[in-house]
Every structure is written in C-alpha cells, then in structure tokens.
Amino acid sequence: MSAGTTMNALVYEAPELMLLRSVPRPVPGRGEVLVRVEYSGICGSELSGFLGHSSLRTAPLIFGHEFAGTVAECGEDVVGYAVGDRVTANPLSSCGTCEFCLAAHQELCPSRKLLGAMLPGSNAEYLVVAAVSLSTVPESLALSAASMAEPAACAVHAVTRSGIGPADTALVIGVGPIGMFLIQVLLAHGVTTVFVTDRNSERCRMAAALGALVIPDGEGFLSAVRERTDGRGVSIAFDAAGTRTTRRNCLAAVAPGGSVMLVGLHEDETSLPLNTVIRSEVSLHGVFAYTPTAFRTALAWLEAGRIGLAEGVVEVDLVDGAQWYRRLLEGDPALKVLLRPRTAACRVHHPTGYRQGSATPTSCSVPGAS
C-alpha cells in the first residue's frame, strides 16, 4: 500500500462536531500491523470528549478504542500474524520497562498511550496497532462481540482488584456496558447477591435478566439497600457511572469495613464525608482501565460465553456516528453502539481542518453534526 492511499474516518473537529473525512491511510512501521476495522464501539468515556470536556481528547482526532477487524498489512519484523487474520487489540500501550510495567501494572505506566486519545483511533476504515497489543479472535467468536473485549476487561480488572469473594454482597451503580459486564464477572466469581440501580428502566430490565437484583433509583434507594442487607449495607460497591451522586451513594450503601470501587470516569470533583470513611474504615479504590492479563481474560470469557451483551447492541454506519454520540448523551437506551466503518460513504468536497498526514483531506457533512 502506498503512503498516499486514503481512507474514510470520523474526525472530531470541535465540541459536538464530527465529520466523515477522507484522510491518509496509515502505514505500519516496524513491529506494527495495519488493521481493517469491522466494528468500533462508542465508549461512555468518549462522550465528555465529544462535548469538549476531556483534556485527553483534542481536535482534530479520530476517536475509538474498542474494536475488532482483520489484518490488512504487516510491518517489518511482525511474526505470528498474517493478512486476513481476525484480531482485536488492547488499546492501552505502555513502555514495558518502568517500575509499574515490571510489576504488571501497565495501566499505571507514566508513558501509557490510548488509541483514540493520544493516538488515532478506530473510528476509521483502518488503524495501525503494535503487534504486541494484538490478540487473535477465534472463528467461534463474532468480531462484533470481540470488539467489546475492552469494556469487559475494565470489569474483569475492577472485580479482581476488589478482592470480592462468594460470601460477599455487591452493588453496581450504573448499568451501561461496563456495569453489565461487572454483573456478569461478579456472578462468575461466585457472588450470588449483586444489587444494581440505574435511572434507565430498560437497562435495569436487562440487568435483571442477567441475574442481578434491581433496586429502583430514587429517594428510597439507600433504605432499600439497608433493608435487603439486614441493615449492614453491601460488602463492596462499584460506581460505574462516575458522578458526584453515584459516588456518594456507593459510600452510603457500603457496610463498615467495606470497599468502594471507583470505576466510572465522568465528573472530576466530588465532595465526600471523609469522617464517615475514617470511622467506618471504608476503603476507597480507584480503578483505571485494565492489565494485559485482564484483557486476555475478558476475550477468553467472551469466547467461552461466560460474559457478553445479548441485548441492547446497535450497529450503525460510520457516517451516522456523530448522531449517535449525541443520542447517547441525550439518553438513548442503546447499551452499546458499534460503528461499521466499512459501510461508510459520503459526498466528497474539499474542506479544511484535518492536520495529520500529507494527503489533501476531503469530507462530507454528517447529518446532525453541525
């Protein structure tokens, strides 16, 4: 493939503005692979970036870090992969040599980089990934399901970090994709009592179908938690929403000596009653991303059918991506939106704005993006 070859990509250009552009197709370097993207999932963490509220995502940028596809080209010194192989990838790369990487905490590497934030992401027909980050997707697992290995890995890492056991009780606040995976991973760990709450009644229905015990969101929520745990509260509470209210509710719902796992990244600042934390010896744990081991475990569990999203998954053309970022912000009940880059098409004209690469970019307007 020549360096001048182009591809379609959904480019974030300003708050609430994404355009489908024709941009230079990346060329894999030494140890890198060019992946032809079949599915690219919209992550909840990207929604604040779409609004312009994320310091990690600055325009112009191609979002996307949850994906699966096939190998289109291998760079020099790549072994173990060939054109046509079905793959997904851990989108969080690390240096491999710092004290955190050597201690198997790659998610804390000071030099870590995330696709779709520090590097061009998967909301495009192609992207380049380091071969060491790739995982082969077996034929028994659909690529659409494999594209959800990343959010599943977040859940695997959070539950592992919590140290929860079968005799413990759990609460999950926020049942988006990671919340749904949290329920399944907790149940797979033998936890029999998993409470959930969410403002979205349809998502609560889906959570109940997985085996969770739904507690309606509202003023009586905390009383209901206490009542159903003999007045104690839950052993471990997982905040998968990341708001001031959900963090406070997790703390209020947990038993003395329990733990609050802070998983959701949304609002930055939250005021908490730290005297309660001290007197009740409650542990607060930040949970960021996942380790490579958690990613591989998530992919294996997806293949085995131990976890997965059976409902609420919507597949849409890449050209409609901007509409769906907005729809999710407005409360659309879709659980996971998968963009299909290979079906993208547009009316080409000559725009300005996209600065990456040397080819002359072209674009088309995405309905609802202006």
UniProtKB/TrEMBL annotation:
Swiss-Prot/TrEMBL keywords: Metal-binding, Oxidoreductase, Zinc
Keyword Metal-binding found: yes
InterPro entries: ADH-like_C, ADH-like_N, ADH_Zn_CS, ER, GroES-like_sf, NAD(P)-bd_dom_sf, Zn_alcohol_dh
A GO molecular-function descriptor: oxidoreductase activity
Pfam families according to UniProt: ADH_N, ADH_zinc_N
Named cofactor requirement(s): Zn(2+)
Domain Enoyl reductase (ER) per the UniProt entry, residue ranges: 13-339
Family of the protein in this entry: Belongs to the zinc-containing alcohol dehydrogenase family.
Name of this protein: Enoyl reductase (ER) domain-containing protein
Lineage: Bacteria, Bacillati, Actinomycetota, Actinomycetes, Micrococcales
